[in-house]
């Protein structure tokens, strides 16, 4: 009986360790997918309004025809998978002709090799795009048009 309990304990431990490692990776994959979806929506907005929105609020409609807002293209705007109102960081630049979009990844993900670094940020951007982990062990993943 003790042998059976020991085997079940070992299997449970292995399962918990594998699941806990997959969860941050799955959330990071969702963040990367969300940013790609937001980028597509921003390009559709740009095509209709000839500029990017000043904010990611669904009511944003600067320069758009009457009745067109961000919600026309994507409602709701995806939020970070940790929930509780955590949004992705967005910064409109150059009089809304460019933008910087950032997610905070939990792991040193392979997509970090293709994102923007601080040196590649658009002029005037204030969002940090450093790939190195911060004090909270998060990695910045930044994209632009």
Could you give a short description of this structure?
Helices cover 33% and strands 12% of the residues.
What does this molecule look like?
With 145 residues, the chain is an alpha+beta fold. The protein has a single domain (25-143), classed as Glycoprotein, Type 4 Pilin. The chain contains one helix and three strands. It has one helix spanning 2-49; strands at 89-93, 98-105, 139-143. A three-stranded antiparallel beta sheet has the order 1-2-3, with helices on one face. A hairpin with a 4-residue loop joins strand 1 (89-93) and strand 2. The longest helix is centred in the N-terminal third of the chain and has 48 residues, at 2-49. The radius of gyration is 20 Å and the shape is elongated. It starts with a helix and ends with a strand. The model has no long low-confidence stretch (mean pLDDT 82).
Give me some keywords for this one:
about 140 residues, alpha+beta
Largest sheet: 3 strands, antiparallel
**Order of the strands making up the biggest sheet:** 1-2-3
How far is the first residue's CA from the last residue's CA?
62 Å
Low-confidence region ranges: none
The average pLDDT value, as a whole number, equals: 82
- Assign the CATH topology: Glycoprotein, Type 4 Pilin
- The CATH architecture can be named as 2-Layer Sandwich
Number of strands: 3
Q: Which structural class matches the secondary elements?
A: alpha+beta
What amount of the residues lies in strands? 5-15%
Total domains, how many?
A: 1
**Sequence of secondary-structure elements:** HEEE
Proportion in helices: 25-40%
- Morphology: elongated
